[in-house]
Amino acid sequence: MDLKREIAKLFDEKKYDQVILKINDSKDKDLLFIKAMAYAFLNDYDKAISTLKDNEELLNKDLVKLIDTHINICLYFNNVNDALLALQHYEEYPYISQEVEEKYAEYKKEILEFNKRKQSLSVEEIKQLLTSNNDAKIEKALSILPMYRLEIFASYLQDIMLNYKKESIRTLVLILLSENKYAEKVDFNWHGEIISVIPKDIPTLLNDDTYMYCINLAKKSKEAQFIDLFNNILTLYGLYYYPKKISADKNLLYEDICLIIDKMLSNSVDNLKDSDDKLIKEILMILSKF
Fold first, then answer.
1. Which of 60, 97, 168, 214 is exposed most, by the fewest CB atoms within 10 A?
2. What three-state secondary structure class fits 289?
3. What are the residue ranges spanned by the domains of the chain?
4. Which of 74, 61, 72 is nearest to 27 (CA)?
5. Is the bond leading into 243 cis (omega within 30 degrees of zero)?
6. Could you give the C-alpha distances from 160 to 21, 86, 170, 189, 236, in angstroms and in order?
């Protein structure tokens, strides 16, 4: 495996410390962008930004990606003012192209919309949403939470993961914590069994093998939505077992998902309800829960 592919795999696995060690002092611009994001996901804002600033002369060869990365890191840490200052800095560059000029306007709009969303609900209002018994209200709160420090809402999120009636909502909370590298141990109601997990250590649902399988599907399938359906069903299957590993044989799982999609596209999925295939029945049962 070449270095870039190895680093990409480590990044997908959220092993950000190892990513930084592997990249070391490399001056490859693609790796420097990854290094900056790795620092960000390790909650080291200063090193993330300095990685970009110290290598700006090299990274500005891909100016759009540099601006995008810089602004995304600022917003990841809720630093709206820093994002606006960064954009102002890049706007002072000599004219490059109409595409870049249009991007400046898009980025400014994105930053202002982010700031508006952040100000749209107070902490107390978010807490009220999290304590409701309404799926839509809780999902709305969860969509806003990454703009805040999750520790503020830790007790509310813990209560949902233990006591909320709907499995998919309990799981969405755990995924939110996992994606935001939450490092404290939490308790999770896994289909009636209480388990303890550290969210930052939970692996991602989809991996390189799945990606390659989807590439092959794209070559074979004539249906444009086939790949999206495959990823959606696999993700829902993973959600059901999350955070435990899927025990089903990977190849059989992929094959059965494809069979179900074929039936969906021909409006004959009901024909599978009497199937003797236990895995197919399990997938259909899980789909019915979400």
1. 97
2. helix
3. 3-119, 121-201, 208-289
4. 61
5. yes
6. 37, 38, 6, 9, 19
The tens-digit pLDDT sequence of the chain (290 residues) is: 588 888 888 888 888 999 999 998 889 999 999 999 999 988 899 999 999 999 999 998 898 899 999 998 998 887 888 998 999 999 888 888 888 888 888 888 888 887 777 666 788 889 999 999 898 889 888 888 887 888 889 999 999 999 998 888 888 898 888 878 888 899 999 878 898 888 887 765 555 556 556 556 655 555 556 777 787 788 778 777 776 777 788 888 888 888 888 888 788 878 887 788 888 888 888 888 76
Query: Residue 123: which H helix or E strand, with range?
Result: helix 123-130
C-alpha gyration radius of the chain:
22
Determine how many CB atoms are found less than 10 A away from the CB of residue 244: 14
Report the distance separating Cα 95 and Cα 111, nearest Å: 22
Distance CA 261, CA 265 (A): 6
pTM for the model stands at: 0.50
- CA torsion sign for 139, 177, 196, 153 is negative
**Both tokens assigned to 98:** 């109409």
Do the Cβ atoms of 281 and 258 come closer than 8 Å?
no
- Tell me, what amino acid is at 262? D
Write out the H or E segment, with its range, that includes residue 98.
Answer: helix 98-120
Residue that the structure tokens 């420090």 belong to:
149
* First CA to last CA distance, the chain: 38
What does the chain come to in residues? 290
Short-list 161, 159, 155, 156, CA closest to 178: 161
Report domain 3-119's class.
mainly alpha
Buried b (16+ CB within 10 A) or exposed e, 7-42: bbebbeebbbeebbebbeeeeebebbbbbbbbbbbb
